[in-house]
Amino acid sequence: MSTEIINRDAIHRLLSVIGGDKEDLLELLNEFEESAPLLVGKMKAAATEANLDSLRISAHSLKSNSRDFGAVTLADLCENLEHACKSGEVSNPVEKVGEIVRALDVAREALRGISLHDG
Amino acid sequence: MTSDSGSDLHAGEASGAKGLRRLRGARSVQGKFLLYVVPLVLFSTLLVFGAFEWNARRSAEHQLQVKLEKMVAIQSSVLAESLWNVADAQIKLILTALITDPDVLAAAVYDERERLVAEAGATDQFDKAHYLLESDIQYNSGDQRVRIGSLRIALTDARLSLLVRERLILVGFLAGILLIAVVGATLTANRRIIGRPLGLLMESINLAQSDTPRRSVEWTSDDEIGRVVTAFNEMQQRQTAYEQQLRSANDELERRVSERTAELAGAELTAREARGQLTDAIESITEGFALFDSEDRLVVANGRYREIMLGDADADIAMGTPFADIARRAAEAGRFPNASTSRETWIKRQINRHRTAGSPYIQEIAGNYWQQISNRRTDKGGTVAVHSDITQIKRISDELKRAKDAAEAANEAKSAFLATMSHEIRTPLNGIIGMSTLLNGTELNDEQRDFSDTIATAADTLLTIISDILDFSKVEAGALELESMPTDLVETIESSVELVAAKAAEKGIELACRINPDVPVGILGDPVRLKQILMNLLNNAVKFTEFGEVVLTVSTMMPEASQTPGQTTLLTFEVRDTGIGIPADRMERLFKSFSQVDASTTRRYGGTGLGLVISKRLVELMGGEISVESTLGKGTVFRFTLPGEVAQIPDKISRDAQLAAIRGSNILIVDDNRTNRLILSEKFRAWELLPRAIGGPEEALEVIGSGERFDLIIVDYKMPVMNGFQFTKAVRNRLGTDAPPMILFSSVSPMEESFREGAAKMDYAAMLSKPAKSGQLLSALVKSLAPDTAQIDRSPQAEAESDLVSARDVRVLLVDDNTINQKVGQKILKRLGYDPVVVSSGMEAIESCTSEDFDIVLMDIEMPDMDGIAATHQIREALAGKRVPFIVALTANAMSEERDKYLRSGMDDYLSKPIDVDALSKSIKAARVRRAAQVS
User: Fold this and answer.
1) What is the pTM assigned to this prediction?
2) Domain spans of chain A?
3) Interface test with chain A among B824, B828, B895, B912, by most A beta carbons within 10 Å
């Protein structure tokens, strides 16, 4: 499913949930643009410190947000990391965060395209 | 009684012994009598014969004396001559002659000089002889008497003694005869006169004593004995009579006593038997049974009870043992595992339970046994304890519970799997549908378009099937929850029909819908699920019908109830088709899972066969019943009933009337926020009003000052330079009585004291919190501009809603660390008409809740530092005793097994992310209902 970076259903759902105003959706997307890198930054720091608790919370937040916008791959990666943190066994957290960073970049790119197209 | 007779017996014995002693001392009356008579006889005999003898002897002695004197006198004369002559021989002769007389003992003659002349006999005996006489012998010589010698003669009394002796023998003999005669006579007389009757008496008395019947003594005589015997006989008769009387009295008494004794014994026996039966019964029951008196002391307990309490059916528990002691012994015997940790507490608990005699409770006994104990109070204040062994039941129930848990877990897992699977399938399916739609948008030749259409149709069908499976799994897992909201029946029914209409038209089938006029406009129910059922039945009907028609009829069996909101009514839905019909033998399989009428049907008509099953379950969940009638080849009728509460549906007509009433009004909007101005203006234009929006109050005052007039002014409270109150005053100052009604818009909590007081003074036509819902806004406008219309057309539902809102705005706190989630949540809430306070951590949430009064808290679970569960706990602790908000958990952990976990940890409700708007509004509604209940 490499073609589906963003699940449009999810975007539509989000749009309908917040009342159908595309401007609102844009606002949320901007918020995502701003907050996601912050979360990733936290994750990086947590990964290098091997602070699983902090890593888990950040991964959870990013998972939640990316799922809202239908960034399926990113959400799944975050979920895996979150679960790994919960079980207390994270092999090579820095690399995992690296994967998430790459997936986030892909998702952001895709979201920009979608928002423009739909907008 | 017995002692009396005993003492009588003793007395008898004593008297008998006395009699024997008397007999021994003096053998008999005879003996006694003889003892007196014999000496008397002897004495008198001796006296008589003594006197006689004495007299005889005296006369004999006298005769002897006389004889001696005569002899002496005679012989002296005789001898005088001889002596004179000195004829000694002669003298001798004479003397010898003398001696021949047997009475003469001796004789001697002496001369004048006392010389012995002659003698005869035993002269030596002279000295001893009783009868001795000496006389002088005198010779007569002329007239002169001369003494010439003396004569001495001694007489013997031997003959006298012999006579005496003879007489004595005779006397003795006579006396003996006399004595014998006397004794014999005495004995005979005594025996005949006294002894015989006495003997008879004695015999009679002895007879009486030996308990043989009394016999009267046969004795007749006129003497004392005879009278005694008569008296005795009389006495005896009397005694016999008396004894008889006594005996009969005694017999009567004894008979009565024995009767009573028998009765008593019988009663005792009955009692003992009853008691024995009772004891047996108590002993034989398998339950432990014990009865305690009002002092909690044991009255009776069966072996089973002892076994349960002490482990030994033969254990000794004395009657009267206090229950506390038994409980202690049971605890010490290690019978109750729960008692091992804290014995005293356990014992106290047992005693308490025992005394309160409440509902039965279950207890574990050593060895993995279980018992159920019920304590009942008796009328007399005692306690009956029944200990039933429920080990088997408990084991079975445990097993059942385990099995049930396992089954439920399996079912849950299955449902989870189905949910996941269908989700996983849907995602690519959406891709297929999306792509085929896109494909259709491109330039295609006919063949390609046909392919593309087929793909789209297939995908669509697949989606339906998956939805069915998901629904089915939900229904099976019992996870399907029905809404209960005012449902517009006409709309729901008509839209269902509308959706099927296209298919029916394709097949050339008539599709008709008839709703009876007495069917209520709205009921409380789940419109989505009702629609699903109707769609299912209608789709089926259309699917299996080739010619003819499909008709949906809705009617009610309770038309009068249907007009009153709040009444329960019963609706009947009927879908009739003219299709192929269902064979009778297949009818019952119709509502079973995965079973269509037959396999070929599935092939021909498609479908999972789940539709009817789901419909049936849904109808049942809604409290109705579904049934089917069919004639093969003629058609089928599905009929289901639906109970429901009649509800008022916001009336479109009245809304139209409201809009008509205010149409064309001039409205001034004064708000510094551009967005608000735009939203309101847009909305007002849609309502055919004439809005004029101004950003600054001063500018607005200028406009008013310039003479432009408005029917209504809406003013925001919070504005720079001049707030809503000040602006309102200014307007009223300038226009005076011409001032139009004003509505205040505010995001400030109306509970704020200063604000509320100020607002009250201002006397606004209405006050609304931002952002206002359309309905509220319209109501406010109508109330301000056309109060009459508002009053007439105000629907009860709007009234109810405004009651809920106007009582106090619903205060919502959104707690989420995630900024995007915050924004999404905020937007959803605003859209629903709420103005949430947003915080981003558990600590802030606690602060907000303690400083402000919230109706509902939407609490994210996954947060750093303090998670939602901990925050909820602390909020509840901090607000202990006060009003606690309705707390709803928000989480991305989607499975329903989590739901219970959150509800257990203090949450009032649970919503999964991404948030479903319907679920959220339902949850808030629940909070509002609770709030309304608390306020009232």
Assistant:
1) 0.32
2) 8-112
3) B824
